[in-house]
Amino acid sequence: MTLIKRILWVLAALLLLIILVSFFLPGTVHVERAKVIKAPPATVFSVVNNLRTYNDWMPWNRKDPNMHQTFGDKDSGQGASYSWTSTDKEVGNGTLTITESVPDKKVVTALDFGDMGTSMGGWNLSPVDSGTMVVWYMDSKMTGKNVFYSLVGKYMGLFMDKMVGPDFEQGLDSLKSISERAGVTRTPVIKLDTMTVHAMTILYISDSAATSGEISKKLAGIYGQELAAFIAGNHLKMTGPPMAWYSGDQFPLLFDAGVPVDRTPDATEGRVRIRKTVAGPALVAHFWGPYELDPLGYKALADTLRQSRRKAAGMAYEVYVGDPGVEKDPYKVQTDIVQPVH
């Protein structure tokens, strides 16, 4: 009898120790893996932002080819979602929703596992010389709906990195393969310089676009139709190539598309507005390459601005020196990214 009591006392002490230790264990777990992919951020973003591609590279989706999936109203971008059911215990059931989507920079997701809770995760993309640095991360809450779930969850959290990390590594390898096959791996040409910009009278139209493809269509309509008609009707002359200012980095993207003209018209009409710019110094990135790679030009310009210890004098803008409608090779189309400075 004494032996049984001793065993019970030892078990009780162990249980108490386990419970006490759990109070000092973290309630959340962060898992992260990173890899450089030799493709531009726009290419990698187009993959992770589109749920229809996940069966090609997401490790858990590939574990059960018989997994049943149901997609929501959207299959890409913020608000896109799909649910899955699987008899494979490693896959289980759940719902994935894209909660935030910043073009070429990040995709944030919520993974809802029902009674097991919801984990937040996603991919952060940043341009590097050899392509794109991709960081895949997940933050999981390890506490549950009662003390037992919280106790078990916190101890499971100690092994989460070893359990999930290898899957992240496998998924990044597959994402790398897909992105590099689809990506434009040729490096754009960027030449940095200083210049003096002249004072300009600019006719412009403000608009927005939900996709990068829509930007091209709207710019063509603004330059080739609305502004061209206004210039012809008011006997004005263009004094330089088309220009554009972009606000923010998330779709729907706001922009002002304009052209410099020789004089100020007596009045405007429709969506046409007038902007005056002042003369002064500027940094410029002469960029030759596809438009989806121009964030590399902005980055180079920002790095140069920081190193020069000068300050930006207003927003940077793009000057479309080359015409992609005439020159079909995007690496021969010149875009100047101009940053006025103090």
TrEMBL record:
Gene3D superfamilies: 3.30.530.20, Regulatory factor, effector binding domain. Signal peptide: none annotated. It comes from the Bacteria. InterPro entries: Polyketide_cyclase/dehydratase, Reg_factor_effector_dom_sf, START-like_dom_sf. Pfam families: Polyketide_cyc2. This is Effector-binding domain-containing protein. It comes from Dinghuibacter silviterrae.
